[in-house]
Amino acid sequence: MSDQPAANLLTVKDLKVRFPLKSSSIFAPKRYLYAVDGVSFSVTQGQALAIVGESGSGKTTTALAIARLIKAYAGQVQLQELDLLDLAGDDLRQARRRFQFIFQDPYSSLNPRLRAADIVAEPLAAMAADAKQAIVDELFQAVGLRPEQQRLFPHQFSGGQRQRLGIARAMAPKPQLIICDEPVSALDVAVQAQVLNLLRELQRQRGLTYLFISHDLGVVQHMCDQIAVMYLGQIVEFADRISLFKNPLHPYTRALLSAVPRVDPAMRGKSQRILLQGDPPDPANPPSGCRFVARCPVAEARCHSQPPALRRLASGQQVACHLVSDDAVSPLG
To answer: Which residues contact 183 (CB under 8 A, 6 or more apart)?
Structure first.
């Protein structure tokens, strides 16, 4: 057995996505909203990385830019040897077989005019009919759908079954990376657990790599090896799952985790709820210093003027906060 560390499958460097803002005059300079502003991270092959944060933090926009479903303004997205942002035309179409997307809404992400078997077979258009059917049969079994359901249309499935169908479609071209954008948020709680367990089992069986987008930290704790916390277009903390849940460093991460319900009554008594005041600032006009400064309970004068860099600590955690010590002690204690 090799002692070599697993290689990174996906490497994202300084990714930026901007959207033009309407101007009051044709002579006014162009203004942009930077939905993603300099995001960098990597995903190890065979593991799952989560990007978490409030609505509007930029996590879904990051995923869409990586998948080339929206245009990035700057940066690099490296899938092993390929820079996905440099690809176009047939090169991009060929590369898409190596990464697939599972969408949030299982009701609108499937073509209502196609039968289930044809939906799963869509990415396999160039294959012979017999080979294509064999893959469809195998995938229906893998995701827990019955063979006779291949002839049904999407509206004849429940929400959980539709998401299983979406998972089968994503797996059809045997991708290396699957991007899951809130894949269970539209489902009932009992069905959520079934779909998450299915994703975990498929990862174990097939060595899949996941980029998991979620606002639900309970889901993230169950699914992911590493976690990136985003706030207003930037990563404010990056850590492995155990470190982040055991010792969250950034005040924003602390606030997110304090809102997670605890099953254990003893843990409920020890946890302190951190209530954030106000709403996130206007992303078209972010603060000049730390982007979290207006809502931070421990902000100092320098936080208003100096943007904190994402720095790596001796513990291995990365955090963008002036007030976190080099030996990984949060300003909230």
So the answer is: 102, 103, 104, 163, 166, 167, 195, 199, 212
DSSP E strands in 121-273: the ranges are 177-181, 209-214, 226-231, 234-240
Nearest alpha-carbon partner for 97 in 173, 169, 168: 173
* DSSP H or E segment with residue 246: helix 241-246
Burial of 96 (0-12, 13-18, 19+ CB in 10 A): middle
SS3 2: coil
Phi–psi pair at 282, nearest 5 degrees: -65, 120
**Residue 27 pLDDT more than 90?**
no
Rg, Å, the chain Cα set: 21
The two structure tokens encoding residue 101: 């997307």
What does pLDDT average to over the chain?
A: 91
What is the structure's pLDDT at 241?
A: 95
Contacts of 328 (CB under 8 A, 6+ apart): 247, 249, 313, 314, 315, 317
CA dihedral 216, 168, 79, 103 (to 10 degrees): -40
Beta bridge mates, 312: 318
Contact assessment for residue 215 and residue 254, using Cβ atoms and an 8 Å cutoff: no
| CB contact at 8 A, 102 and 178 | yes
- What confidence tens digit (pLDDT) does each residue in 77-134 have? 999 999 999 999 999 999 999 999 999 888 888 999 999 999 999 989 878 999 999 9
Calculated CA dihedral for residues 177, 140, 163, 63, nearest 10 degrees: 10
β-strand partners of 83: 78
Q: Which residue has the tokens 């605890």?
A: 262
Q: Residue 129 contacts by C-beta under 8 Å, 6 or more apart in sequence?
A: none
How far, in Å, CA of 293 to CA of 217, rounded?
23
Per-position DSSP letters for 9-76, written without gaps between them: EEEEEEEEEEEEPP-SSTTSPP-EEEEEEEEEEEEETT-EEEEE-STTSSHHHHHHHHTTSS--SEEE
- DSSP letter at 272? -
